[in-house]
Amino acid sequence: MENMLEGKKILFAEDDVNLGAILAERLKQKGFKVIHCSDGEKALKEFKNDKFDLLILDIMMPLKDGFSLAREIRATDEVTPIIFVTARSLKEDVIKGFQSGGDDYITKPFSMEELLMRIQAVLRRTSSRVEKVEDSAETDIFEFSEVVFNSVIQSLQVRDQTYKLTSKESELLKILCNNMNEVVPRDVALRKIWGDDTYFNGRSMDVFISKLRKLMKEDARIEIMNVHGKGFKLVVLA
Torsion over CA of 50, 55, 58 and 59, rounded to 10 degrees? Predict the structure, then answer.
């Protein structure tokens, strides 16, 4: 484990007490600080009372499942990365996990080495994020058609409606805006935002694209197009 990752604090929600205890101990041996909870309600309480660098959430838990827990967390925290752990591998569950705010998804059974690799990859992607505050000198604002997008405070105004974007939604829209009316290759966007172009990250990006389309659908002069085999294009008609 790289020194830069040692000391990172992980909230680990896993209802299998034996598995949870074993994985928590192994993570501690690798230098992480770990809080292990056996159900979703306890995990939510711990999250509200402390700050964590990473959340590892089992999906099938008593009292509150991982998807519900992630949605509640994302209502107040859009930055802390989430890795889902589950015995289910259906594509629908993968998509639901990303829609709930997940950054990655690992299916049981898995090796400790695989879990560590995923943790390192997620933490590398998020550790470089710099928290931004509203500052007119640094504000990067895009105005087109009936839309105003502020990439610094992550706000999107469409006509008289204003929406708060997540970090990834904002990063993705900014790439599209910087390349307006031009194709943004999928692999380029994936590497820039997620760090790699794996299948699961690709599905996550598709979810965010759908969300951005939905937010801007009232403006008929704007369309985020799928360019088959290539990527996406933000088209703004004059």
Answer: 100
Phi (first) and psi of residue 12, to 5 degrees: -115, 110
Q: Which fold has domain 3-127?
A: Rossmann fold (3.40.50)
Domain ranges of the chain: 3-127, 141-236
Was domain 141-236 assigned CATH 1.10.10.10? yes
Cα–chain-centroid distance for residue 153? 17
Measured on CA atoms in the order 180, 184, 189, 192, is the torsion positive or negative? negative
Least Cα distance to 173 among 149, 199, 143 occurs for: 149
Band of residue 5 on the pLDDT scale cut at 50, 70, 90: low
Q: Give me the pLDDT at residue 109, please.
A: 83
Which tokens belong to 169?
Answer: 């939604």
Burial environment of residue 39 by CB neighbours within 10 A (0 to 12, 13 to 18, 19 or more): middle
The 10 Å CB-count burial string (b at 16+, else e) for 147-176 is: bebbbbebbbebeeeebebeebbbbbbbbb
pLDDT-based confidence at residue 1 (cuts at 50, 70, 90)? very low
Q: In this structure, are residues 22 and 52 in contact, taking their beta carbons and an 8 Å threshold?
A: no
**What is the layout of strands, in order, in the sheet containing 183-185?**
183-185, 231-236, 222-227
